[in-house]
Q: What sequence folds into this?
């Protein structure tokens, strides 16, 4: 059983297709691992064991008849508890969510279902996805499989923790300010924030219309490509989804990387880095250089103002969404979220609109001044060594917003610009906790990010290393 | 700052939100920072720029 749990989603799909493993035995193994991981990390909200086992047996029957029910046939997955299933209440990491039955199933879940994946549960998340550390004052905090005293990152906290613990094969997350890439970094898994509008948000809990993206977390870049392939593309249910054709991400993985230009930002992203982060992140550049990529230093414009504008957009849109509940049920929010929503309610219309106007100018500047010289930009995901849950337990205190802003400082620019970014594990900090770099690409160029990330993972084994407890699953 | 705190309290009350007084000063300080940042960052924006141009730029500049 432990052999199956060490497989990536792609490897498991191949084994099931070749009838060297059954969907049922994979499901039994992952359900048992999920129970163990939850005990240690508090990463699951619900396991749907009976329905998942039945779906796995059905997949085996179809495969036995020679049918192929999709490229992810029989692969067990659990997702962040914010993707609606018709007639089921999504908890949203909150006290309010469990009282609301979803009228329709999220497009991304329907698409994964069509690809053959089997959902077996839902995962821990930060309250209403508005927080970057993995703290949750209603569900209890999510704990890092590498060391349960440390944060998992958020808001897709359970996605990162369950994958690292070898108790899941792939997970959907959402990224509004870093919520896919941060858990990927802190938990040592791979995460892709797609271009804004590349993946439908229909049936996914909204936080900020202008910034929300839905994307995969998985153990490998190849798995992220598989999941993105299944979920990307226009959707009539989401008016903001792009009609641009979807690339063949699987094929793109095998493309050459020699000669590609990787931008090394001259400022901002590499400033004030903790040595615990700087060493593995810079070492990853050497791997790309050894693959024949050209490392090019690039000048970077003033980004702090962009982060401030992104924060204003997020805060104002979130406050608008939550205004009714904030008036009627303020006691049902944690102090931290309530404070953040109250701040959002005080922005003026001029501030909000100007933050949106600044966005298009910032994107033109970024593409014209930075991306004109390079294919991707390479950067750390966070600048500091992983903190403990206790160190970052700031609640609704006056300095909470500063602490939280520090966590998203290097991830928020990609959200503001709407561009894709891929987080890839690249080693360990001195205390044994993982570390990742991010590659930031041009709009809709997920294929190139995946190609580079896959090339990196063929040369390294950081993504293969399980945490101490995960190894025992 | 005191003026911002008062304004903040009035704004929240007007919108029907009950505020915790202990957080007011920190929230008002954050609001002041954001206001200053917005003034500095958007002062150079061309008059005609509108938010929807972002989507056009994203699509047009695709790799």
A:
């Amino acid at each position: 059983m432990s052999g199956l749990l060490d497989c990536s989603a792609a490897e498991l799909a191949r084994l099931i297709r070749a009838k060297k493993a059954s969907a049922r035995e994979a499901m039994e193994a992952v359900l048992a691992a999920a129970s163990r991981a939850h005990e240690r990390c508090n990463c699951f909200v619900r396991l749907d064991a009976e329905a998942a086992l039945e779906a796995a047996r059905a997949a085996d029957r179809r495969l036995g008849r020679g049918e192929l029910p999709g490229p992810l046939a029989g692969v067990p997955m659990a997702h962040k508890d914010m993707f609606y299933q018709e007639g089921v209440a999504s908890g949203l990491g909150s006290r309010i969510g469990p009282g609301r039955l979803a009228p329709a199933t999220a497009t991304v879940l329907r698409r994964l279902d069509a690809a053959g994946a089997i959902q077996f549960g839902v995962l821990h998340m930060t309250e209403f996805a508005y927080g970057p550390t993995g703290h949750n004052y209603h569900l209890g905090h999510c704990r890092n499989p590498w060391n349960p005293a440390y944060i998992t990152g958020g808001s897709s906290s359970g996605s990162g923790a369950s994958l690292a613990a070898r108790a899941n094969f792939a997970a959907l997350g959402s990224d509004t300010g870093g919520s896919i890439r941060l858990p990927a970094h802190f938990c040592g898994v791979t995460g892709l924030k797609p271009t804004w509008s590349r993946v439908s948000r229909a049936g996914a809990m909204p936080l900020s219309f202008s910034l929300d993206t839905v994307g995969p977390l998985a153990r490998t870049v190849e798995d992220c490509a598989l999941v993105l392939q299944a979920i990307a593309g226009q959707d009539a249910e989401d008016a903001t989804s792009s009609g641009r054709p979807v690339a063949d991400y699987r094929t793109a993985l095998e493309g050459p990387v020699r000669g590609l230009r990787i931008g090394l930002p001259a400022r901002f992203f590499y400033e004030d880095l903790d040595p615990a982060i700087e060493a593995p992140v810079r070492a990853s550049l050497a791997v790309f250089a050894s693959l024949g990529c050209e490392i090019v230093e690039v000048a970077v414009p003033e980004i702090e103002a962009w982060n401030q504008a992104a924060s204003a957009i997020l805060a104002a849109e979130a406050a608008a969404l939550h205004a009714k509940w904030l008036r009627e049920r303020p006691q049902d929010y944690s102090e931290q979220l309530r404070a953040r929503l109250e701040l959002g309610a005080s922005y003026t219309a001029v501030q909000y609109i100007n933050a949106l106007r600044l966005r298009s100018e910032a994107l033109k500047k970024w593409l014209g001044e930075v991306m004109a010289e390079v294919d991707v930009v390479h950067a750390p995901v966070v600048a500091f060594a992983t903190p403990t849950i206790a160190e970052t337990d700031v609640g609704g205190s006056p300095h909470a917003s500063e602490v939280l802003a520090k966590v998203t400082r290097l991830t928020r620019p990609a959200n503001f610009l709407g561009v894709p970014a891929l987080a890839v594990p690249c080693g360990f900090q001195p205390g044994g906790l993982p570390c990742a770099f991010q590659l930031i690409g041009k709009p809709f160029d997920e294929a190139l990010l995946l190609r580079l990330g896959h090339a990196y993972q063929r040369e390294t084994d950081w993504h293969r290393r399980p945490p101490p407890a995960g190894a025992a699953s | 700052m005191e003026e911002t705190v008062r304004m903040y309290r009035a704004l929240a009350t007007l919108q029907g939100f009950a505020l915790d007084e202990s957080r007011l000063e920190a929230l008002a300080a954050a609001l002041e920072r954001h206001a200053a940042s917005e003034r500095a960052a958007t002062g150079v924006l061309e008059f005609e720029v509108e938010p929807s141009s972002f989507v056009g730029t994203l699509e047009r500049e695709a790799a």
